[in-house]
Amino acid sequence: MPTFSRLVRFLAKDGRTYYGDAILPSGVSDIAKTTQARIINGDIFGKHNVTDQVADVKTLLAPLAASDVKTVRCLGLNYENHAKESGMPIPKYPILFYKPITSLTGPTSPIPVPLPAQEAPGLDYECELVAIIGRPALNVPASSALDYVLGYAVGNDISHREWQLKRGGGQWALGKGFDGWAPYGPGIASTDLIRDPQALRISTKLNGEMVQESETKDMIFGVRDTIAFLSRGTTLLPGDLIFTGT
After folding, report:
1. Whole-angstrom distance, CA of residue 157 vs CA of residue 155
2. What confidence tens digit (pLDDT) does each residue in 169-178 have?
3. CB within 8 Å of 193: residues ≥ 6 apart
4. Could you tell me the end-to-end alpha-carbon distance of the chain, in angstroms, rounded to an integer?
5. Considering only CA atoms, which of 106, 135, 178, 146 is closest in space to residue 244?
6. H or E stretch including 213?
7. Per-residue pLDDT band at 3 (split at 50, 70, 90)
8. Residues 11, 153, 124, 34, CA torsion sign
9. Which DSSP category does 79 fall into?
10. Quick one: pLDDT band at residue 246, thresholds 50, 70, 90?
11. Which CA distances in Å does 119 have to 115, 156, 162, 175?
């Protein structure tokens, strides 16, 4: 579907914002180290062209412009160990909640902690694989679900446990949906690079200390099954983000 390998959206040193295909040195796979990119023209979800025009990257932004994102879906308790840590039963069906578009931000943007989140302790991090839908998907079988994926990013489902579990009236969104509480990026790796989303390692470091470490094969509901489940009777649109749980 895409012609890019590593999609980035960035503020260039010329002061303009572009979509681009990251240029990485030989042996480097970390998109966060991108200093240059080939500019992309056209529709990211449709006909587009990776040009020969190279721009110098000043700042990596959220991989998709807010206007290109349709919905932010998130799964809760999608790893058995996390469910056990939370003292909750292993879910029989995916636990779905939504984040507002305003929660999305770039991979290095400061994370605001608004006054409501300062009223009680409970601020937390959740490193997650994010699947980005690339074309409309309705009632798709798990066997072909990955054909509808544009690519994958890393996201942080920032949460406040007090608001999520006690002050949210039984809904998780209040404790997870503050502005800037869904940073993701640093880019979108194409499905040509990530052919099996269940064969990845995922980890979080806080001030240099490893605080989360797992593998996506340990998901309760893998990416294929998640897309198949979410598309039952509901069309997933290009630009939909799916945070797949922690």
Report:
1. 6
2. 778 888 999 9
3. 5, 6, 151
4. 28
5. 146
6. strand 209-215
7. confident
8. negative
9. B
10. confident
11. 7, 22, 9, 12
What tokens appear for 111 in the block? 């994370």
Distance, CA of 78 to CA of 246 (rounded, Å): 6
Distances (CA, A) of 87 to 19, 83, 91, 116, 139: 42, 6, 12, 25, 33
**φ, ψ at 68 (rounded to 5°):** -95, -5
Can you tell me the distance from the alpha carbon of 194 to that of 211, in angstroms, rounded to the nearest whole number? 25
For residues 150 and 223, the answer to whether their CB atoms sit within 8 Å is: no
The amino acid occupying position 28 is: V
- Tell me the residue length of the chain: 246
Could you tell me the two tokens for 146? 């990955």
Encoded tokens for 123: 């601020």
